[in-house]
Amino acid sequence: MTGKAAEANAMGQDAAGAAGAAKAAEAGAGVAGAAEAAVADAAAPDADHVPVFSDALFRKKRKKGKYSLAQPPAPPLEAPVADTHAHVHLLWDPVGALACAGVWNVGFVCDVVDTVEDDPAVWDAMDGWRAQAAERLAAYAQAAAETYGAAALPRNLGAAKPGASAGSTCQGAGGPSAALAAPAVRFIAGCHPHNAKDYDDAAEAALLARLADPRVAALGEIGLDYHYDFSPRDVQKDVFRRQLRLARECGLPVSLHLREAHDDAYRILCDEGFPPAGTLLHCFNLDKQVLAPFLEAGCFIAFGGPVTFKAADEVREAARLVPLDRLLTETDSPYMTPEPMRGMICGPAHTVFTAARLAEVFGCAFGADREAFLERLWKNAHDLLDRRPTAWQLAHATSVCEARP
After folding, report:
1. Domain made up of 3-28+78-396: CATH architecture
2. What are the domain boundaries of the chain?
3. How is residue 345 annotated by DSSP?
4. 224 with 259: CB under 8 angstroms?
5. Which residues in the chain come in under a pLDDT of 50?
6. Three-class secondary structure of residue 238 per DSSP
7. CA spacing 20 to 30 A to 369: which of 9, 45, 154, 289?
8. What is the pLDDT at residue 385?
9. Which pTM value belongs to this model?
10. Cis link prior to 232 (omega < 30° from 0)?
11. What are the pLDDT digits (tens) for 391-402?
Protein backbone atom coordinates (compact mmCIF):
# COMPACT_ATOMS: atom_id res chain seq x y z
CA MET A 1 0.00 0.00 0.00
CA THR A 2 1.47 3.37 -1.03
CA GLY A 3 0.72 7.06 -1.19
CA LYS A 4 -2.83 8.24 -0.70
CA ALA A 5 -4.05 4.72 -0.01
CA ALA A 6 -1.58 4.36 2.84
CA GLU A 7 -2.48 7.79 4.17
CA ALA A 8 -6.17 6.90 4.01
CA ASN A 9 -5.48 3.68 5.87
CA ALA A 10 -3.58 5.59 8.54
CA MET A 11 -6.56 7.94 8.90
CA GLY A 12 -9.05 5.05 9.07
CA GLN A 13 -10.72 6.03 5.79
CA ASP A 14 -11.45 3.92 2.74
CA ALA A 15 -9.96 4.81 -0.66
CA ALA A 16 -11.58 2.54 -3.22
CA GLY A 17 -9.94 2.17 -6.64
CA ALA A 18 -11.58 3.29 -9.85
CA ALA A 19 -12.76 -0.18 -10.82
CA GLY A 20 -14.37 -0.88 -7.45
CA ALA A 21 -15.90 2.58 -7.37
CA ALA A 22 -17.47 2.10 -10.78
CA LYS A 23 -19.06 -1.18 -9.68
CA ALA A 24 -20.38 0.43 -6.51
CA ALA A 25 -21.77 3.33 -8.50
CA GLU A 26 -23.63 0.98 -10.79
CA ALA A 27 -25.00 -0.99 -7.86
CA GLY A 28 -26.05 2.03 -5.81
CA ALA A 29 -28.25 3.92 -8.25
CA GLY A 30 -31.29 4.12 -5.94
CA VAL A 31 -32.24 7.30 -4.10
CA ALA A 32 -33.62 7.36 -0.56
CA GLY A 33 -36.52 9.73 0.05
CA ALA A 34 -36.46 10.29 3.80
CA ALA A 35 -33.46 10.29 6.10
CA GLU A 36 -34.56 7.07 7.80
CA ALA A 37 -34.87 5.25 4.48
CA ALA A 38 -31.47 6.53 3.43
CA VAL A 39 -29.88 5.17 6.60
CA ALA A 40 -31.54 1.80 6.05
CA ASP A 41 -30.35 1.67 2.43
CA ALA A 42 -26.78 2.73 3.14
CA ALA A 43 -24.03 0.61 1.64
CA ALA A 44 -20.50 0.48 2.98
CA PRO A 45 -17.16 -0.78 1.63
CA ASP A 46 -16.95 -2.91 4.78
CA ALA A 47 -18.39 -2.95 8.27
CA ASP A 48 -15.55 -0.93 9.78
CA HIS A 49 -16.04 2.14 7.59
CA VAL A 50 -18.55 4.94 7.30
CA PRO A 51 -21.57 3.96 5.17
CA VAL A 52 -22.05 5.39 1.70
CA PHE A 53 -25.47 7.01 1.26
CA SER A 54 -26.88 7.20 -2.25
CA ASP A 55 -28.58 10.60 -2.09
CA ALA A 56 -27.83 14.31 -1.75
CA LEU A 57 -28.42 14.62 1.99
CA PHE A 58 -25.76 15.71 4.49
CA ARG A 59 -25.18 13.67 7.63
CA LYS A 60 -23.18 13.78 10.81
CA LYS A 61 -21.95 10.92 12.89
CA ARG A 62 -23.56 9.96 16.19
CA LYS A 63 -22.68 7.30 18.71
CA LYS A 64 -23.12 3.55 18.25
CA GLY A 65 -22.98 3.65 14.46
CA LYS A 66 -25.94 6.00 14.02
CA TYR A 67 -26.20 9.10 11.84
CA SER A 68 -28.38 12.19 11.85
CA LEU A 69 -29.15 14.82 9.25
CA ALA A 70 -26.93 17.88 8.96
CA GLN A 71 -28.57 21.02 7.64
CA PRO A 72 -27.12 22.68 4.53
CA PRO A 73 -25.96 26.31 4.70
CA ALA A 74 -28.93 28.60 5.26
CA PRO A 75 -29.89 30.59 3.35
CA PRO A 76 -28.56 28.58 0.38
CA LEU A 77 -25.53 29.97 -1.39
CA GLU A 78 -26.36 32.62 -3.96
CA ALA A 79 -23.84 31.47 -6.59
CA PRO A 80 -22.12 28.28 -7.73
CA VAL A 81 -18.90 27.15 -6.08
CA ALA A 82 -15.84 25.20 -7.25
CA ASP A 83 -14.05 22.28 -5.65
CA THR A 84 -10.50 22.89 -6.87
CA HIS A 85 -9.03 19.76 -5.28
CA ALA A 86 -10.87 16.46 -4.89
CA HIS A 87 -10.06 12.79 -5.33
CA VAL A 88 -13.38 11.82 -6.88
CA HIS A 89 -12.00 8.50 -8.10
CA LEU A 90 -11.17 7.48 -4.52
CA LEU A 91 -14.79 7.79 -3.45
CA TRP A 92 -16.81 4.60 -3.20
CA ASP A 93 -19.56 6.06 -5.39
CA PRO A 94 -18.12 8.75 -7.68
CA VAL A 95 -21.36 8.89 -9.66
CA GLY A 96 -23.39 9.70 -6.56
CA ALA A 97 -20.79 12.21 -5.39
CA LEU A 98 -20.97 14.11 -8.68
CA ALA A 99 -24.78 14.04 -8.65
CA CYS A 100 -24.83 15.32 -5.07
CA ALA A 101 -22.43 18.11 -6.06
CA GLY A 102 -24.75 19.08 -8.89
CA VAL A 103 -27.72 19.35 -6.55
CA TRP A 104 -25.83 21.76 -4.28
CA ASN A 105 -24.53 23.89 -7.18
CA VAL A 106 -20.91 22.79 -7.01
CA GLY A 107 -20.44 23.50 -10.69
CA PHE A 108 -16.76 22.77 -11.21
CA VAL A 109 -14.52 20.04 -9.79
CA CYS A 110 -10.84 19.22 -10.24
CA ASP A 111 -10.10 15.52 -9.83
CA VAL A 112 -6.52 15.08 -8.62
CA VAL A 113 -4.93 11.92 -10.01
CA ASP A 114 -1.55 10.46 -9.06
CA THR A 115 -0.03 9.03 -12.24
CA VAL A 116 2.28 6.76 -10.23
CA GLU A 117 -0.31 5.25 -7.90
CA ASP A 118 -3.85 5.67 -9.19
CA ASP A 119 -5.69 3.30 -11.50
CA PRO A 120 -5.43 4.71 -15.05
CA ALA A 121 -9.04 3.59 -15.64
CA VAL A 122 -10.19 6.86 -14.09
CA TRP A 123 -9.19 8.77 -17.23
CA ASP A 124 -11.66 6.83 -19.34
CA ALA A 125 -14.27 6.47 -16.60
CA MET A 126 -14.94 10.13 -15.83
CA ASP A 127 -17.17 10.94 -18.81
CA GLY A 128 -19.33 7.91 -18.00
CA TRP A 129 -19.53 8.86 -14.33
CA ARG A 130 -20.73 12.35 -15.25
CA ALA A 131 -23.33 10.98 -17.65
CA GLN A 132 -24.66 8.63 -14.96
CA ALA A 133 -24.61 11.47 -12.44
CA ALA A 134 -26.80 13.54 -14.75
CA GLU A 135 -29.35 10.74 -14.78
CA ARG A 136 -29.56 10.78 -10.96
CA LEU A 137 -29.78 14.55 -10.57
CA ALA A 138 -33.52 15.10 -10.68
CA ALA A 139 -34.25 12.25 -8.24
CA TYR A 140 -31.52 13.42 -5.86
CA ALA A 141 -32.82 16.98 -5.99
CA GLN A 142 -36.38 15.89 -5.36
CA ALA A 143 -35.36 13.80 -2.35
CA ALA A 144 -33.31 16.70 -0.94
CA ALA A 145 -36.23 19.11 -1.42
CA GLU A 146 -38.61 16.72 0.33
CA THR A 147 -36.20 16.37 3.25
CA TYR A 148 -34.95 19.93 3.72
CA GLY A 149 -37.69 21.91 1.99
CA ALA A 150 -37.44 23.42 -1.47
CA ALA A 151 -36.26 26.77 -0.06
CA ALA A 152 -33.12 25.11 1.31
CA LEU A 153 -31.85 24.20 -2.14
CA PRO A 154 -29.90 26.48 -4.50
CA ARG A 155 -32.00 28.56 -6.84
CA ASN A 156 -30.75 26.77 -9.97
CA LEU A 157 -33.00 23.76 -9.31
CA GLY A 158 -36.05 25.14 -11.05
CA ALA A 159 -34.85 23.94 -14.43
CA ALA A 160 -34.03 20.39 -13.31
CA LYS A 161 -35.16 17.72 -15.74
CA PRO A 162 -34.55 13.96 -15.57
CA GLY A 163 -31.76 12.84 -17.90
CA ALA A 164 -30.38 16.35 -18.46
CA SER A 165 -27.15 16.38 -20.43
CA ALA A 166 -23.98 16.15 -18.40
CA GLY A 167 -21.89 17.97 -21.01
CA SER A 168 -18.30 17.13 -21.84
CA THR A 169 -15.39 17.05 -19.43
CA CYS A 170 -13.40 18.74 -22.19
CA GLN A 171 -15.33 21.90 -21.49
CA GLY A 172 -15.44 23.79 -18.22
CA ALA A 173 -18.63 25.18 -16.73
CA GLY A 174 -17.67 28.62 -18.04
CA GLY A 175 -20.01 30.50 -15.75
CA PRO A 176 -22.97 30.17 -13.38
CA SER A 177 -25.48 27.68 -14.70
CA ALA A 178 -29.20 28.34 -14.80
CA ALA A 179 -30.02 24.61 -14.84
CA LEU A 180 -29.32 21.62 -12.65
CA ALA A 181 -26.28 19.84 -14.07
CA ALA A 182 -23.44 17.55 -13.12
CA PRO A 183 -20.32 19.59 -12.41
CA ALA A 184 -17.75 20.17 -15.11
CA VAL A 185 -14.60 18.20 -14.33
CA ARG A 186 -10.96 18.90 -15.10
CA PHE A 187 -7.97 16.81 -14.03
CA ILE A 188 -4.88 17.68 -12.04
CA ALA A 189 -2.12 15.12 -12.58
CA GLY A 190 1.25 14.53 -10.98
CA CYS A 191 3.30 12.47 -8.54
CA HIS A 192 2.42 12.99 -4.88
CA PRO A 193 5.46 13.31 -2.58
CA HIS A 194 4.41 10.05 -0.90
CA ASN A 195 5.25 8.28 -4.18
CA ALA A 196 8.45 10.14 -5.01
CA LYS A 197 10.48 6.98 -4.35
CA ASP A 198 8.77 5.37 -7.37
CA TYR A 199 9.29 8.33 -9.71
CA ASP A 200 11.82 7.54 -12.44
CA ASP A 201 12.27 8.33 -16.12
CA ALA A 202 9.47 5.94 -17.08
CA ALA A 203 7.12 7.51 -14.54
CA GLU A 204 8.00 10.95 -15.88
CA ALA A 205 7.25 9.84 -19.44
CA ALA A 206 3.88 8.49 -18.28
CA LEU A 207 3.15 11.77 -16.51
CA LEU A 208 4.03 13.80 -19.60
CA ALA A 209 1.63 11.70 -21.65
CA ARG A 210 -1.16 12.52 -19.18
CA LEU A 211 -0.27 16.21 -19.04
CA ALA A 212 -0.80 16.36 -22.80
CA ASP A 213 -4.47 15.57 -22.25
CA PRO A 214 -6.25 18.92 -22.68
CA ARG A 215 -8.54 18.05 -19.78
CA VAL A 216 -5.54 18.45 -17.46
CA ALA A 217 -5.66 21.85 -15.77
CA ALA A 218 -2.57 21.70 -13.57
CA LEU A 219 0.37 19.58 -12.45
CA GLY A 220 -0.12 18.25 -8.95
CA GLU A 221 -0.38 17.53 -6.24
CA ILE A 222 3.37 17.88 -5.88
CA GLY A 223 5.60 19.04 -3.07
CA LEU A 224 7.00 17.72 0.20
CA ASP A 225 5.46 15.70 3.02
CA TYR A 226 7.65 15.39 6.12
CA HIS A 227 4.80 14.14 8.31
CA TYR A 228 4.52 10.63 6.89
CA ASP A 229 7.91 10.45 5.14
CA PHE A 230 6.70 7.65 2.85
CA SER A 231 9.56 8.67 0.54
CA PRO A 232 13.03 9.82 1.62
CA ARG A 233 13.22 13.58 1.94
CA ASP A 234 16.09 14.03 -0.50
CA VAL A 235 14.11 12.03 -3.07
CA GLN A 236 11.01 14.13 -2.43
CA LYS A 237 13.02 17.29 -3.06
CA ASP A 238 14.48 15.98 -6.30
CA VAL A 239 11.10 14.87 -7.64
CA PHE A 240 9.55 18.18 -6.62
CA ARG A 241 12.20 20.01 -8.64
CA ARG A 242 11.72 17.75 -11.65
CA GLN A 243 7.97 18.34 -11.69
CA LEU A 244 8.34 22.10 -11.30
CA ARG A 245 10.47 22.05 -14.44
CA LEU A 246 7.82 20.00 -16.22
CA ALA A 247 5.16 22.54 -15.27
CA ARG A 248 7.23 25.30 -16.81
CA GLU A 249 7.79 23.23 -19.96
CA CYS A 250 4.09 22.42 -20.31
CA GLY A 251 2.84 25.90 -19.40
CA LEU A 252 0.70 24.57 -16.55
CA PRO A 253 0.10 25.82 -12.99
CA VAL A 254 1.04 23.60 -10.06
CA SER A 255 -0.99 22.43 -7.08
CA LEU A 256 1.18 22.05 -3.98
CA HIS A 257 0.94 19.48 -1.19
CA LEU A 258 3.09 20.69 1.70
CA ARG A 259 3.07 19.13 5.14
CA GLU A 260 5.57 20.14 7.82
CA ALA A 261 7.85 21.19 4.96
CA HIS A 262 6.85 24.71 3.97
CA ASP A 263 10.28 26.28 4.48
CA ASP A 264 12.10 23.73 2.32
CA ALA A 265 9.41 23.89 -0.35
CA TYR A 266 9.56 27.67 -0.47
CA ARG A 267 13.34 27.57 -0.91
CA ILE A 268 13.00 25.11 -3.78
CA LEU A 269 10.31 27.25 -5.43
CA CYS A 270 12.52 30.31 -5.16
CA ASP A 271 15.46 28.37 -6.57
CA GLU A 272 13.54 26.79 -9.47
CA GLY A 273 11.21 29.73 -10.03
CA PHE A 274 7.48 29.83 -9.37
CA PRO A 275 5.70 28.49 -12.49
CA PRO A 276 4.54 31.41 -14.69
CA ALA A 277 1.09 29.80 -15.09
CA GLY A 278 0.48 29.98 -11.35
CA THR A 279 1.03 28.22 -8.03
CA LEU A 280 -1.82 26.91 -5.87
CA LEU A 281 -1.17 26.10 -2.20
CA HIS A 282 -3.72 23.37 -1.60
CA CYS A 283 -5.70 22.85 1.65
CA PHE A 284 -3.96 25.50 3.74
CA ASN A 285 -4.50 24.78 7.44
CA LEU A 286 -1.78 26.70 9.29
CA ASP A 287 -1.18 30.23 10.57
CA LYS A 288 -0.48 33.56 8.90
CA GLN A 289 3.27 33.36 9.53
CA VAL A 290 3.56 30.21 7.43
CA LEU A 291 1.29 31.69 4.79
CA ALA A 292 3.07 35.05 4.44
CA PRO A 293 5.91 34.15 2.02
CA PHE A 294 3.55 32.29 -0.30
CA LEU A 295 1.21 35.27 -0.41
CA GLU A 296 4.12 37.57 -1.15
CA ALA A 297 5.10 35.26 -4.02
CA GLY A 298 1.65 35.62 -5.56
CA CYS A 299 0.32 32.11 -4.88
CA PHE A 300 -3.33 31.15 -4.97
CA ILE A 301 -4.50 29.74 -1.63
CA ALA A 302 -7.20 27.07 -1.35
CA PHE A 303 -9.11 26.34 1.84
CA GLY A 304 -11.03 23.19 2.63
CA GLY A 305 -12.62 21.64 5.70
CA PRO A 306 -10.00 22.85 8.21
CA VAL A 307 -11.17 26.47 7.87
CA THR A 308 -14.50 25.33 9.38
CA PHE A 309 -13.02 23.45 12.35
CA LYS A 310 -14.04 24.85 15.71
CA ALA A 311 -10.51 25.29 17.04
CA ALA A 312 -9.02 26.62 13.78
CA ASP A 313 -9.05 30.34 14.57
CA GLU A 314 -5.49 30.71 13.27
CA VAL A 315 -6.54 29.26 9.90
CA ARG A 316 -9.41 31.72 9.63
CA GLU A 317 -7.10 34.56 10.64
CA ALA A 318 -4.72 33.54 7.85
CA ALA A 319 -7.58 33.26 5.35
CA ARG A 320 -8.54 36.90 5.94
CA LEU A 321 -5.13 37.95 4.60
CA VAL A 322 -5.58 36.30 1.20
CA PRO A 323 -6.43 38.76 -1.58
CA LEU A 324 -9.87 37.98 -2.96
CA ASP A 325 -8.49 37.42 -6.45
CA ARG A 326 -6.32 34.54 -5.17
CA LEU A 327 -8.76 32.80 -2.82
CA LEU A 328 -10.11 29.33 -3.67
CA THR A 329 -12.33 26.61 -2.18
CA GLU A 330 -11.75 22.85 -2.19
CA THR A 331 -12.54 19.66 -0.28
CA ASP A 332 -9.60 17.25 -0.67
CA SER A 333 -12.33 14.61 -0.61
CA PRO A 334 -12.58 11.93 0.67
CA TYR A 335 -10.54 13.61 3.43
CA MET A 336 -10.94 16.77 5.54
CA THR A 337 -14.74 16.77 5.92
CA PRO A 338 -15.92 20.17 7.18
CA GLU A 339 -17.98 20.90 10.26
CA PRO A 340 -20.55 19.80 11.27
CA MET A 341 -19.90 16.46 9.52
CA ARG A 342 -16.39 15.55 10.67
CA GLY A 343 -15.96 11.80 10.71
CA MET A 344 -18.05 11.33 7.57
CA ILE A 345 -16.61 10.72 4.11
CA CYS A 346 -16.10 14.04 2.35
CA GLY A 347 -17.37 14.71 -1.18
CA PRO A 348 -17.31 17.67 -3.57
CA ALA A 349 -20.77 18.76 -2.35
CA HIS A 350 -19.21 19.65 1.01
CA THR A 351 -17.57 22.63 -0.69
CA VAL A 352 -20.71 24.60 0.16
CA PHE A 353 -19.90 24.47 3.88
CA THR A 354 -16.36 25.76 3.34
CA ALA A 355 -17.59 28.51 1.01
CA ALA A 356 -20.23 29.60 3.51
CA ARG A 357 -17.66 29.70 6.33
CA LEU A 358 -15.20 31.69 4.24
CA ALA A 359 -17.93 34.20 3.44
CA GLU A 360 -18.47 34.62 7.19
CA VAL A 361 -14.73 35.04 7.73
CA PHE A 362 -14.71 37.85 5.17
CA GLY A 363 -17.76 39.48 6.74
CA CYS A 364 -20.11 38.96 3.80
CA ALA A 365 -23.80 39.46 4.50
CA PHE A 366 -26.35 37.14 2.94
CA GLY A 367 -27.64 38.24 -0.44
CA ALA A 368 -25.81 40.47 -2.89
CA ASP A 369 -22.70 40.82 -0.72
CA ARG A 370 -22.14 37.08 -0.41
CA GLU A 371 -23.12 36.51 -4.02
CA ALA A 372 -20.38 38.90 -5.20
CA PHE A 373 -17.87 37.15 -2.93
CA LEU A 374 -18.78 33.70 -4.25
CA GLU A 375 -18.70 34.88 -7.86
CA ARG A 376 -15.18 36.19 -7.29
CA LEU A 377 -14.05 32.79 -5.98
CA TRP A 378 -15.78 31.08 -8.90
CA LYS A 379 -13.91 33.33 -11.34
CA ASN A 380 -10.61 32.60 -9.58
CA ALA A 381 -11.10 28.87 -10.02
CA HIS A 382 -11.89 29.18 -13.70
CA ASP A 383 -9.16 31.70 -14.45
CA LEU A 384 -6.54 29.38 -12.92
CA LEU A 385 -7.89 25.89 -13.62
CA ASP A 386 -10.31 26.06 -16.54
CA ARG A 387 -8.11 27.72 -19.14
CA ARG A 388 -7.83 26.65 -22.73
CA PRO A 389 -5.19 24.02 -23.44
CA THR A 390 -1.63 25.34 -23.44
CA ALA A 391 0.42 25.57 -26.61
CA TRP A 392 2.41 22.57 -25.37
CA GLN A 393 -0.78 20.55 -24.83
CA LEU A 394 -2.09 21.43 -28.27
CA ALA A 395 1.20 20.24 -29.78
CA HIS A 396 1.21 17.00 -27.78
CA ALA A 397 -2.52 16.29 -27.33
CA THR A 398 -3.30 12.62 -26.69
CA SER A 399 -6.77 12.86 -25.15
CA VAL A 400 -9.87 11.20 -26.54
CA CYS A 401 -11.36 14.68 -26.21
CA GLU A 402 -10.67 17.27 -28.87
CA ALA A 403 -8.67 20.24 -27.71
CA ARG A 404 -10.62 23.47 -27.73
CA PRO A 405 -9.32 25.95 -30.32
Report:
1. Alpha-Beta Barrel (3.20)
2. 3-28+78-396
3. P
4. yes
5. 1, 10-47, 158-178, 399-405
6. helix
7. 289
8. 98
9. 0.87
10. no
11. 999 999 854 444
